[in-house]
Every structure is written in C-alpha cells, then in structure tokens.
Amino acid sequence: MSKKNKPESDQGSKNSGSSSKTITIIIILCFLGIMPILIWATVPDSSSHTAASTASPMVEYAAAAAGLQICSSENYPVNVPGGESAILYQLSPDCSIPTDATTVKVLVIGFTSTEAMNAAIATAQNTYQNWKTLNTEVFTSGSSVLVVQGAPGNEDVQQIGASLIEQGAVQVI
Questions:
Q1: Which superfamily, per CATH, for 50-172?
Q2: pLDDT tens digits, 16-26
Q3: Cα gap 96→101, rounded to integer Å
Q4: Does residue 112 contact residue 85 with C-beta atoms inside 8 Å?
Q5: What whole-number distance in Å separates Cα of residue 99 and Cα of residue 69?
Q6: Which residues of 18-30 are buried (b: 16+ CB within 10 A; e: fewer)?
Q7: Most C-beta atoms within 10 A of its C-beta, which of 23, 51, 71, 87?
Q8: Secondary structure of 51-81 as H, E, C letters
C-alpha cells in the first residue's frame, strides 16, 4: 500500500497524536510562564529599608511630641557590619529657618540581626567614649538603633528621648 491509499483510521490517529503533543507543549509553556509570577508573589518583601523605616513612625511621633517638624529624611550610607539601611532625619521647630542651635538630627540604622546591632553599639561606645558630652542619646528598638543628636543645650534631644522611651525604645547607657 502506498501512503495515499492508507485507511483513514491511521491518519486520524496521527492527527490526535500531534494535537495531544501541541496541548502538552501549551500546558508546559503556560506553567513556565506562570511559575515566575508565583515565585515573585510568594517571596517576602526584602526592601533594604525595612528595618530603618519601621522606626519612622516612632521618629514622627517623637518629633510631634517635642514640637518639632521633620524638615527632611534621606537615605544615609551604612558602613557598619550587619547594617542594612539608614535614614537621617533633620528636625526643627521651623523648617523654613532651621539653625544648628535648634536642629536635632535623628539617625535610624536598621540591622540584619540583634547580634550585629549589639556589636556595632559596642564598637561605637569604645570608639566614641565622649559621645554623652555631645548632647547625644542612643536608643534601640527591635533591630534598629536610633541616634539623637543636637547642639549643646538643645533640650529637644531629651524630649525626643523621653518620647522614644514612652514608645518602647530602650536607651543605651
């Protein structure tokens, strides 16, 4: 028998075999197309500013409690082992005319772990032994360190510190 003279039943089985291959390929391609979306949806957010930004409401509340405005907040480079991110806040009673005497800086540093945070605090205490004389207060909250600094005699530093403690932060002594 030649190819032209084959019974129709043989040709039908070839068509159904190629259509099942086509459907299988389409299913595989759909699965491969959906897989990256499923992975993306299930991976937790790993923003580099998570640890530092979780302290933002604390800084906002403390500034308001001290009668200060947040004049600016910007990302700050982190050069500390285990440091994940940092945000520097500039606070002042009047952002239109901030002065060094009335401005309070709050640096919030987020760490990857409590151990890394404690190691950084110990290193800083050994390096900057006169930090308390500079009208600087340091606090921890979760895995973040909050450094509050103002000009000598600026009592807003202590008011912000009191508010941070009220919110659950722990003062580093």
A1: PknH-like extracellular domain (3.40.1000.70)
A2: 667 778 777 76
A3: 14
A4: no
A5: 13
A6: eeeeeeeeeeeee
A7: 51
A8: HHHCCHHHHHHHHHHCCCEEEEEEECCCCCC
